Fold this sequence. Notes:
By secondary structure, this protein is α/β, with parallel strands linked by helices. It is built from eleven helices and twelve strands. It is 32% helix and 25% strand.
Amino acid sequence: MFKVKNLEVSLIKNNKIDRLLVKGVSLKIPDGKIISLVGESGSGKSLTGYSFMRIFPSQNLKITSGKIFFNDIDLISLPEEKIKEFRGRDIFMIPQEPLTALNPVLTIERQLSEIFEVHTNLSKDEIKAQCLKLLELVKIDNPAVRLKSYPHQLSGGQRQRILIAMAVALKPSLIIADEPTTALDVTIQGEILELFLELRKQLNLSILLITHDFGIVKSLSDYIYVMYGGKIVEEGIKEEIFENPLHPYTQGLIDAVPSITSVPKKPLKTIPGYSKISDFYCPFYDRCDLAQANCKREFLFTFINENHGVLCRRVIK
């Protein structure tokens, strides 16, 4: 349904490419599946997600190479007026911060209504009825009252549900959820994640879940892409990634997830150093305990089987 091939996003200065930020990313999002794009802050996850809708936080960021196919239509080649038709109707992105994503001076009803006004020919009464149904769908209590509320009058979990309601309003094929449980307490996180699972089943949604939390990834994902330094360093079905992580970075992320079934006998493992843009072929080279000199040189992303691939020279025979 949704396919990305060799995507590159660059920082542009003086009309020239200053630095590659997303480097040759390829991925697939099948119908009705939850796909996770996981990595720490600064790895390029959100930038990759925004590029699917051709929306960037700065005019100095541009797609400089690659293809993005949605039902065999190359979204990169479309003029701006055409891509606007896809946003909200076929693809919807839920941004990280629900409070800043919502307009503080407009009611929830006004903000939900705008989606229908832009993409449909429904009457005002029909739009209001649809807004009520949406709040019921995402399990907002007292939906008629909440429609008249402003964002600051709602809790963090309620605001997140409002964004999810906006996302599913026109039953898009793909929802991109960028850190959808950030700043929510554990109980509310669980409710939001359960809601995603229910909506995926009811509406046959495809979801790209952008997160740094491998705990969330394990509970939701069908397929996982691990991203570091603007590159996909490992990918595979959930069972393969958790039972046999091949890239040292993937292993480090999994080791950093605390267990809820036992008290750790020693501190959780940490990954030394910090994330940064690297010119080496393996972007994790500077932080890897197993790095060798030839990890700096070019080598191919390799699939060890049909369900598991990795960008690591140690596993290439």
